[in-house]
Amino acid sequence: MRYDVVVLGAGIVGTSTALHLQERGRAVALVDRRGPGEETSYGNSGVVERSALLPVAFPRSLSALADVALKRYPGANYHWSALPALAPWLLAYWRNSAPDRLLATARMMQPLLSATVAEHRALAAKAGVETLFRDGGWLKIYRSEAAFAAEAREFPLAAEFGYRVKALSQEETLALEPNLEPSFAKAVHWQDPHSVSDPGGVTKAYAAYFQGIGGRVLTGDARSLRQNGTGWSLATANGPIEAREAVVALGPWSMDVLTPFGYRFPLAVKRGYHMHYRTEGNASLGRPVLDEENGYVITPMVGGIRLTTGAEFARRDAPKTPVQVDKTEKLARKLFPLGSRAEAEPWMGSRPIFPDSRPVIGKAPRHSSLWLAFGHQHLGFTLGPATGRLLAEMMTGEKPFIDPAVYGAERFG
Ligand SMILES: Cc1cc2nc3c(=O)[nH]c(=O)nc-3n(C[C@H](O)[C@H](O)[C@H](O)COP(=O)(O)OP(=O)(O)OC[C@H]3O[C@@H](n4cnc5c(N)ncnc54)[C@H](O)[C@@H]3O)c2cc1C
């Protein structure tokens, strides 16, 4: 079977890319070894960001670094065995975490980030899953004045980007979320983000919409991709397929396919975990809540309250070490009346991340009919639909809705 484009990876990024291409008249096959939206795009915190200003940074102060190194900060964990191979990446990440570079990255990401909510909601309407979305923003709670002050320093930048943000007292926060325990002093309410109650379900619905407009979802191993005279070939469960162009949107697995083609992009992963909880009594939560000083998020989901953890630096395929779930669960129980665990063991996934916290969206530097869309770090669920539109516009020769230059892979040489 021959297609115009084969998109490898049916997470939120690949699925959104495939459907934007299909809508533009391309015959598209979307290939994954699993069903759509069953990996990273399933297990995240479900926040569709419109408040992410500065990227998540490597700690620069000695005390913050010591908290991570000594594993006192529950928002981070690492495996000693992973550090030697990760060292060059961590050094580059540390360099990119200098205040002036963070600000520069924030400005480079803003054009894409400002489109996220509108792009998601447009797809949600077409796919018939608006009921899985909620507005109302998200809350960050603070126990110490110093941590609150650090967040408040971002308010002028928020005003510059046109984001609505409000500092709340404990009483004002409890008026918004009456079931939170008053174990915090203050909160910041970012009002523009939306959130979803089932990120995997949203991705599956987008894939179903893609099929409804003529796209094909196929099962196959992306590592069977081969270049041939007229484009690309791939083995799938439905037999071999061919396509004029290929898109790599394999999230944390993207280099599994690109390394054999000679690419050496500095993609690493920040692993993360989640666990769902039943609630005590009739307690409910209206929006995601981030306990920033302890590095976890609780989000109301279809499967219960989902607690998601911060970053774990480890080899992508090393066995799970969900110590952060155990540590943050104890803290989260002081913030919200969590009941018993709803699953036997924590879910684990990997945020694909470049050291400059920008995704790659665009042409592969050395193959004219190969396109790339991965490395969306902490914001991939948010950025999927906007990325899909941008890449589809580039591939079909339309004028891109934003300048894609800063997301090019050429920046890695
Ligand atoms: C704990 C946690 C919380 C997060 N919270 C948020 C949040 O609130 N908001 C937000 O915007 N982002 C969040 N993120 C980040 C976000 O989830 C990711 O950036 C995003 O899901 C990446 O999407 P993707 O499509 O690139 O990758 P994926 O969703 O991982 O998709 C890649 C696909 O490739 C497939 N694949 C892999 N190898 C092969 C192969 N050999 N052959 C065929 N198929 C293959 C996989 O099966 C998978 O379906 C969070 C991440 C984590 C871990």
Describe this structure in words.
There is one protein chain. Helix content is 32%, strand content 28%. With 413 residues, the protein is an alpha/beta fold. The chain has a domain at 2-41 and 200-266 and 356-412: FAD/NAD(P)-binding domain (3-Layer(bba) Sandwich), CATH 3.50.50.60. Strands 6, 7, 8, 14, 15, 16, 17, 19 and 20 form a 9-stranded mixed sheet that branches. Strands 1, 2, 10, 11, 12, 13, 21 and 22 form an 8-stranded mixed sheet that branches. A hairpin with a 2-residue loop joins strand 16 and strand 17. Helix 1 packs parallel to helix 10 (199-212) and helix 6 (116-127) packs across helix 13 (380-396). Bound molecules: flavin-adenine dinucleotide. Residues 9-14, 32-34, 38-41, 43-47, 49, 221-223, 249-253, 256, 272, 274, 308, 349, 351-352, 374, 376, 378-382 line the site of flavin-adenine dinucleotide.
Architecture per CATH nomenclature, i.e. the level-2 architecture of the domain at 2-41 and 200-266 and 356-412: 3-Layer(bba) Sandwich
Q: Distance between termini?
A: 36 Å
- CATH class of the domain at 2-41 and 200-266 and 356-412, named Alpha Beta
Which structural category fits the helices and strands? alpha/beta
Q: What is the CATH H-level superfamily of the domain at 2-41 and 200-266 and 356-412?
A: FAD/NAD(P)-binding domain
Quick synopsis:
The chain has 413 residues and is of the alpha/beta class. Helices cover 32% and strands 28% of the residues. It has a domain at 2-41 and 200-266 and 356-412: FAD/NAD(P)-binding domain (3-Layer(bba) Sandwich).
